[in-house]
Amino acid sequence: MLGRLRRTTRFDVALALSFAGFAYLAWAAATGVGRWMLATVSAAQGQNLPSAVIAGRAIFVDAALGMNLAGLVWLCVSLALVVRASRQRCSITWAWMSTACQILVAAGAAILAGVACRAMIPAPQAAAQSAWDLANALSLPVLLAVAVLVWVTFLVWLLVERARMDRYGPTLRDGLRTNVYR
């Protein structure tokens, strides 16, 4: 039993396909918004840019084609893993892991873009910017990354629960529910 894989069902394949699509959408949103923010704010600032801004601009604006191609290649790798799993050549877990890693990298990119844009804002005056204003300025990239991480965690948890249900069947506690069908 150690070397055998559980049969990959159509439901597993459909779930992995949709997960791969959402991972690419997260990648596209993180890189697109990061590119727009850094290009807009750095154009308004002129030549005197902090080093964090220069690094963020190099990643998101100057290497935009590379970022877009990396997302597309990662999507293709995830889809190829889904196809291999649908043909029972490997475990579907590899496709899920690939898309989860893509979402994690996209969340990190969103944080990086937010930090780089924050570095462009001039240092606040003593009474000009309150803690609430600072929290408002940093909330979008941080909460976007947290939301993506929560979504991935919840989806993986549901997949693990589904695999447990398929492998061991319903428990005594599950028998009391009306939504468990065998």
Task: Write the SSE topology.
Layout: H1 10-45, H2 51-62, H3 64-86, H4 93-120, H5 131-168, H6 172-175
Total strands: 0
Taken from the alpha-carbon principal axes, the silhouette is: elongated
Helix/strand structural class:
mainly alpha
Largest beta-sheet characterization: none
Q: Gyration radius, to the nearest Å?
A: 21 Å
The average pLDDT score comes to: 77
Beta-strand portion reads under 5%
Distance linking N and C termini: 24 Å
Q: What are the low-pLDDT stretches, counting only 5+ consecutive residues below 50?
A: none
Order of helices and strands: HHHHHH
- Helical fraction: over 70%
Continuous helix count: 6
Which features does this protein show?
mainly alpha
Structure description:
The model has no long low-confidence stretch (mean pLDDT 77). The longest helix has 38 residues. The protein has six helices and no strands. The protein has 182 residues and is mostly helical.
Short description:
77% of the residues lie in helices and 0% in strands.
